[in-house]
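(Fold this chain)
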Amino acid sequence: MTSISETPRAARIPIQALGWSLGIFFAITYTICVVFDLVFPGQSMTNLWNPLLPWVDGISLGGYVLGVAETLLYGWFVALIFGPLFNFFAERSA
């Protein structure tokens, strides 16, 4: 139980949990897009991913593995930038 004189602590985002959550979310999203491309080749979304995923060229096993690795890294990139920024501003506003 907290006393009335205590100031509330700002919510903090754990960076590691955010990194894994975003990375896996992006990897799952990428996998869904690859499956979509395989099921509906006429509606391919590969051209949308090409500018975002360097060295991934088309749908192959190697390209898929590289795409998953890159999307995981994008998730960590966002977490390492957004998480500390959120925590910084949450502390200042509390």
About this structure: Residues 61-93 form the longest helix (33 residues). The mean pLDDT is 88.
